[in-house]
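Why do we care about 3D structure at all? Because function follows from shape, and shape follows, mostly, from sequence. That is the central idea of this module. The next example makes it concrete: a single protein chain, its amino acid sequence, and then its structure expressed as tokens.
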Amino acid sequence: MKNSKISLISRLSSDLERMSKIERSIAETIILSPQEITEMSSQTLAQKCNVSQSSIIKFCQKIGFRGFPALKITLSAEMARSENAQQIHAGIFSDDSLGSVAKKLFNSKVSAMSETMKMNSNEKLDEAVRLIEKSDRILIMGIGGSALVAQDMTLKLTKFGKSVISSGDSHIQLANLASFRPDDLLVAISYSGKTREISVAVDFAKENNIPVVFVGGFYGDNPPDVLLHCAADESVVRSSSIATRTAQFAITDLLFVLLVQRRDDAAERISTSQELVRKIR
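And the structure:
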């Protein structure tokens, strides 16, 4: 089996957005009812997912198992451990040693950054930077954990003298977006791509020819102008979206550095900004 050090539930959760409709149906059923799945036959699971039995077998093989029985064995082992040790974060259990926790956490963060860089072409990154450079106004929108990434990116871009808007209130964010024009830009940050506020904002922007740079997972059937993928191995059991934010920060930090590289006045503007802040310390 591939990626044996990563739990099956974690892997399925991380890969959901890359799966076909049939694969996603099977994966979500496993994620939501893992204990129940260990007691099912492939035929029963096929009926529950409303797919063919051969689809179950193909799914198992695609994710690295010989068949459904092998998947059940792995899932049963994970469930057995969960009964004796509480999973406190993706792949980290309450009985892990301090060294093990540190290693797992740092490995997940490094993996998130490495996989994220592999998923984004130079062409996509270049287009995102071009849109940021030429825009009159920029609205950076994120909800929940993604709001932290949005705030950080806002702070960075204001150092260039850009008119950057961000707010922790989604109503204010949408109200600002309502006045945007095609020469402005929406930067939407959401790992799942399913956050209601983000979906409404992106749909409005596309309807009104406002360019959109999306930083997150996989958006769906109506992709924005530039989709910058973020990879993170996090299951439904997590104390915080740590790897997700690590991947998002990797993208926004890279965009900032690329902007610095291209602007002749970047060093001067950043220095002026820092000097002004020092006056209040």
